[in-house]
Amino acid sequence: MVAGSVSRVGIIYSVSSRMVNVETGEIIKTATYDHEGNIGELLKTGMRVVASKLAGVETGDRQPQSNVIPLPYNPESEINPSDAEAFFNRGIAYADISEYDRAISDYDRALTINSKDANAFYHKAVSCELTGRVGEAIQAYGQFIKLAGPGNLHLEGVRKRIRELSGK
């Protein structure tokens, strides 16, 4: 089974999908795609890219912020306590099922191990915002801006979102 969501922060849309084994509930793969622009283009391009990534098919569409994350564990499984990527991936899995507090906890664990992970700060900020933790969201967005490269797709949207959340 494939399930997922489309979310928006500022002018950035994100598609997040996961492939689930219906017999065990195990999340097999997740794929994300971030898009700056209108939702019509997202639906035409982004959905095709995400579906292709879940199916393991390469497309000509490249996006640095997109990834396919194999998750050989159920979100409730134990993971290596020194594996930042595993905590980040499990955070994504929790956010996909709207378990934002658990996602934030895993993003925090990932950031304790690797404090330079801009993506973990970004996803933590989004989850904080969705749980009403605006101050934490602003702080995490700020850390994302400090760590993200100059060509990062989210920079302008995040700067705008910080201004909106700060009431400026």
Number of extended strands: 4
Task: Report the CATH C-level class.
Answer: Mainly Alpha
Q: What does the overall shape look like?
A: globular
Q: What ranges have pLDDT less than 50 throughout 5 or more consecutive residues?
A: 59-73
The total tally of domains equals 1
* Biggest sheet character: 4 strands, antiparallel
Q: Secondary-structure element order, as H and E?
A: EEEHEHHHHH
By CATH, the superfamily comes out as: Tetratricopeptide repeat domain
The tally of helices reads: 6
Q: Strands of the largest sheet, in order across it?
A: 1-2-3-4
Structural class comes to alpha+beta
Give the termini separation: 43 Å
The CATH architecture is Alpha Horseshoe
What is the name of the CATH topology?
Serine Threonine Protein Phosphatase 5, Tetratricopeptide repeat
Describe the structure.
This protein is of the alpha+beta class and 168 residues long. The chain has one domain (2-166): Tetratricopeptide repeat domain (Serine Threonine Protein Phosphatase 5, Tetratricopeptide repeat, Alpha Horseshoe). Helix content is 49%, strand content 18%. It has six helices and four strands, in the order βββαβααααα. It has helices spanning 39-55, 84-96, 100-113, 118-130, 134-147, 155-166, and strands at residues 2-9, 12-20, 27-36, 67-70. Strands 1-2-3-4 form a four-stranded antiparallel β-sheet, sandwiched between helices. It is globular. The N and C termini lie far apart (43 Å). Residues 59-73 have low confidence and may be disordered.
